[in-house]
Description:
- Keywords: ATP-binding, Cytoplasm, Ligase, Nucleotide-binding, Purine biosynthesis.
- The mean pLDDT is 94.
- The protein has two domains: 32-163, CATH 3.30.1330.10; 175-331, Phosphoribosyl-aminoimidazole Synthetase, Chain A, domain 2 (Alpha-Beta Complex), CATH 3.90.650.10.
- Helices cover 30% and strands 26% of the residues.
- The protein is α+β, with helices and mostly antiparallel strands.
Amino acid sequence: MSDKHLTYADSGVDIEKEESTIKALTGGMTYRREGLGAPLTDIGHYAGLIDFGEYALAMATDGVGSKVLIANEMKRWNTMGIDCIAMNVNDLLAIGAEPVSFVDYLALEEHTDEFARQIGEGLTKGAEISRMTIVGGETATLPEIINGFDLAGTCLGMVKKDEIITGEKVQLGDVLVGIPSSGVHSNGYTLVRKIVEQSEYSYQDEFPYNKETTVGDELLIPTRIYMEVLDVIKECDVHGLAHITGSGLLKLKRVTDLGFDFTDPIEPNDVFKFLQKEGNVDDLEMYRTFNMGMGFLIILPEEDAEKAAEMTGGKIVGKIVESGIRVGDLEIV
């Protein structure tokens, strides 16, 4: 264990600089189509929405990120496709849209059939869980650019325009229902790798909290896909939704300007305890980087909260307040 308190920025990912880059990139994107296909949301929510008559079409694009480097170390790639699809589908679910179809982009340094078979296996499983079709994609051989591989994709979904959930209905007193994550999911792996690689552990070593698995296998557990959220939307008065990804609870600012008070948070998975101990990472940095055991959040009136928790295997974790984001006594913002 290092004596230094590691941060995400120390590992090479500065969230504030990323936000500045995004603003520079999108600042000049002012053209807006009119009529059929016109945008219904601004850039910056979980997914983009366009007018398609009675419906809105929703689009999201994302990739697996540097988790692929651990897959390379373990020589096991059959869950990478699940991660790729999950990161996109969960963003669609966070605005109330049902996933319909998917296209993938696989950039390679070189071709091997077994590797490709395993990538296809994961994509197939992810599409099956998400109840959607993979309609195409692109494979690019880029030996001068890619060291190993990169996997990303784009997901198309749909939602009736009067059923879009952006967070504008969130109000004081609403209850927070957190749904557990399966582990680290697919965010924060630049810090994850730095922690492991400076520790006494290798990815092949026994995971200290579960001697039946390895550190690498624990870190490769695929991202949970939260399709049950669609059932909650049908049966409860959902005011807001959040997919907890990179930058942890800071992403909640996308949903509402009101505050979040997590009085009874979900217990973090053992993998987070391992990473925090080995990296000597403080609590604030953990909650600003990782999902910390809660991969998705539903915001709804108190009378619907218990039902939503039962339907998702989640629990009531707090409530909406006037400002800030707090986990117990810890001020996130």
